[in-house]
Amino acid sequence: MQYMGYTKPDPNKLNDTKEGFYFAAEVNTMPQWFNIWPDEAGDSNASLLSSRAPRNFKKDLTEFQKAMVNCNTLLMKLIDRALRTKRPILDPDEGDALAKATSQHLHIADTKSVAEIDARTPLAECICDGLHSARLLCYKNVPQSKGTCVTTAHTDWGFLTFLYSDQPGLQVMGPSCPSVSANQQISLEPTPTKSSWIKPDTEKARLIVMVGDMLERYTNGTYKACKHRIISHGSLRHSLVFFSEPAPSLRVQPHARFGSPPTSLVSPTYGESIMAKVNAKRERKLLGGSFSQCSTAVRT
Ligand SMILES: O=C(O)CCC(=O)C(=O)O
Ligand SMILES: [Fe+2]
């Protein structure tokens, strides 16, 4: 089953206004993870991902992807260190270094303070040769959809998610919400009240980083996956999302330092977990399940 490339909105659903282009690192050998690049129109204003793409589309996205892998590796090392030492993830000077590195196209290897961090931390090892998929998303301008949920509540599957967006709409579940375990497909019961959802200030926070299922699993629940959803403002919304993901063949298990796993079952490979969720989602769609309900906990 194909997972990468262009996905279009469902023409039968008013609320499904989202189109996207999915791509990943070129390190994977299974056909479902192969990238499908569109033809480039040679026109820098081209925007229809389904038929033509702007000039340098593949080159620019590949560069972005590599830069994000660097940024992600750095953050995973910092998280690993924080988990080991029980210190904050970033000291103030490292925060500056990270901000500088990010603004300079993530040339992280050059930054002094991060060079001191052990090159082979166990957590960073998990994402070596990872899938690291990314999505370019566009929610069409549909005034009637204002206030509706255009991406249902879910947690992302990888270790971390990096999200850039030019528009509001993202809501994240506040700390009072029940945790979503990496092994469960949870329906949110009791239904969260509106006040549980927090709206991050996307004007100020240009880059939002969220914990995903694999980090929750690896830390045996010390870090909780961040549940989030997108509410339409009825206007055009773009977002660029990078997922820090392991190789499809990796079985992510809780690290020994976080105690024994909650279950003795061997975890499925990361690729198996994704395909199971994608299939479940497609089946629900075939059965006519409504995706405008904010009640599912799988990535959409
Ligand atoms: O559209 C967005 O900003 C986020 C979409 C999302 O949560 C996802 O693709 O997992
Ligand atoms: Fe997400």
From TrEMBL:
Pfam families: 2OG-FeII_Oxy. GO terms for molecular function: metal ion binding; oxidoreductase activity. It comes from the Eukaryota. Residues 130-246 form the Fe2OG dioxygenase domain. Keywords: Iron, Metal-binding, Oxidoreductase. Belongs to the iron/ascorbate-dependent oxidoreductase family. This is Fe2OG dioxygenase domain-containing protein. It comes from Apatococcus fuscideae.
